[in-house]
Amino acid sequence: MRHFVGFIAGLVLAPVLILGTGWTLPRFADLSATGQSIVTAEGAVAIGAGASVALLVALAAVPPRLTPMLPGIAGLTLVGLTALQVLRPALVERVPAVVPGLEGATTLLSIGAYLPLGLLLFSPMLAPSRWTGGDGGHGVTEEEYFDGLYDEDYEGRDADDGPARRRPARA
Fold first, then answer.
1. Average pLDDT of span 22-28
2. I need a surface site. Which of 9, 40, 41, 61 has the fewest CB within 10 A?
3. If you write DSSP's letter for every residue of 70-135 in order, what string do you get?
4. pLDDT in tens, 82-95
């Protein structure tokens, strides 16, 4: 079930990343063209949007217990859109311009900026440890580790006997 939810979330994450970065690109270009600093209100909004997109990428790619479907599907979508831009650029230009951030997104898509991001997000799908569930692959629990640890020390000892004899450790 977690992989299905990750698949759906990955399909949602890809357009959010594309439109988020596409929305920030013209803001930074306007700041650069007018000679303004990023310390202004417009610069702070653009930095905040860029930081939010970076946080989304980090939260999708880094956590080891997260299903690899979420970043993997988002990454495959970004790589697929980059390939679509290379093979059939007319299809990308047919998208209606009513979506905010589409102008910057098509610019970033045409220069191939989404390819490294897509490959970064796809790479967790190649790690086998990300496919296991939350319980698997972690060895023994603390109780299992300490269970029987001291049983060997008191095996040959009765209540009336003195201190227990130690047996040689097993290799």
1. 90
2. 41
3. HHHHHHHHHHHHHHHHHH-HHHHHTS-TTSTTHHHHHHHHHTTTHHHHHHHHHGGGG-GGGTS-SS
4. 999 889 888 888 87
